[in-house]
Amino acid sequence: MRVKVACVGGGPAGLYLSILLKRQDPSHDITVYERDPEGSTYGWGVTYWRGLFDKLHALDPESARALSEHSVTWNEGTARVRDLTTRQPGDDGFGIGRHRLLEILAARARSLGVRLEFEHEITEGNLPDADLVVAGDGVGSALRTRHADHFGTELKPGRNHYIWLGTSKVFDSFTFAFVETDHGWIWCYGYAFSPERSTCVIECAPETWTGLGLDTANEADGLALLEKLFVDVLDGHALIGRSTGDGSAQWLNFRTLTNRTWHRDNLVLVGDAAHTTHYSIGAGTTLALEDAIALAAALREHPELPDALAHYERERKAALLSIQSAARYSAQWYENLPRYMHLPPERMFALLGQRHSPLLPYVPPQLYYRIDRAAGRLEALRRFKRWLGPKVARTVHARALASRK
């Protein structure tokens, strides 16, 4: 059955959904509306992993091949603590520039007959006449905000400050670097997204941010200080920022967004408009594309729109439970960083890899490390560890809630 679809927001979710729907039925009438000019997207590199790439290749080999051709890969992780470094093997990771990703998806969508309307902002007052309106307009979604009570939207800011930068240093592995200052720890996550550039996300606690003067520094002075702090990991390369009109730097607090429901009549949320997960697990783009995949499948399998949207919401909410839990514990790991920094680098790196565990915050780090090493050898202990973590976390959470009453 031919349907008319309006995708609001020209990000990965809206573009990939338009591709999948056109592949399912070329007669579908699909338009993607983006408020910004074409090619003006901000963002350095995004990451994705082998599991997602395999899905994309099965669903649309042509766009998957283009993504592969323009991605860089790594299969190792590096951690630098003060002047000590450890390197370990990891899963296959991919990095691609956000601009290039959107360029590839937009070209593929156009080739299938999707209309792309740039510099066209959609609000509640000028909603297009469509059978389905897809809100993929980000964490600040105007369409979702208009009905925030219906969606049950909640935004919870994180404690730490972070800034999203580029660099001319090309990392050959996914790199974590931790620097101790007179005002506390500051750290970065670095990964390549092209043969010439890498992403470098820098994070620190509020007291470190103010103690270093990053809260008042303009972008140029802030970047100079950060380049000095991370000179070893950057090998003297420059950091690249994105200043506002007044020259101030783009320091942020990560906001975790959740919604009680994801659809209202013929309006449905995808990507960051529906949910956010902390950047330290590198899942934002993956989840946006998986939303698109699930929504396209639901629309194909359920002819009635209410049934399709309800199925999509149930499936994606269930899939997100473990990922959102991992993201929450990952953010907490960094917020409690000093707890782990006395460990030898190889042990700290091992617990960095375990930061998604609900058990880790409640067990002394050295003891957890020994338990984890033993669990790797004993299946019974591994099962016990998986059972105990959520149980401890639920108990502590319930006690915390009771203490607030």
Write a structural description:
This protein is 42% helix and 24% strand. It is an alpha/beta fold and 405 residues long. Strands 3, 4, 5, 9, 10, 11, 12, 13 and 14 form a nine-stranded mixed β-sheet that branches. The chain has a six-stranded mixed β-sheet with strand order 6-2-1-7-17-16, covered by helices on one side. The protein has a two-stranded antiparallel sheet with strand order 8-15. Helix 3 packs antiparallel against helix 4 and helix 10 packs antiparallel against helix 11. It is globular. The mean pLDDT is 90.
Topology:
Layout: E1 4-8, H1 12-24, E2 29-34, E3 45-49, H2 50-59, H3 61-69, E4 72-81, E5 84-97, H4 98-111, E6 115-118, E7 132-135, H5 142-146, H6 148-151, E8 154-157, E9 161-167, E10 174-181, E11 184-192, E12 198-204, H7 206-211, H8 219-229, H9 231-234, E13 239-240, E14 251-252, E15 255-258, E16 263-264, E17 267-269, H10 284-301, H11 305-335, H12 345-353, H13 365-375, H14 379-404
Parallel strand pairs: 1-2, 1-7, 2-6, 4-10, 7-17
Antiparallel strand pairs: 3-5, 4-5, 8-15, 9-12, 9-13, 9-14, 10-11, 11-12, 16-17
Helix pairs in contact: 1-4, 1-10, 2-3, 3-4, 10-11, 13-14
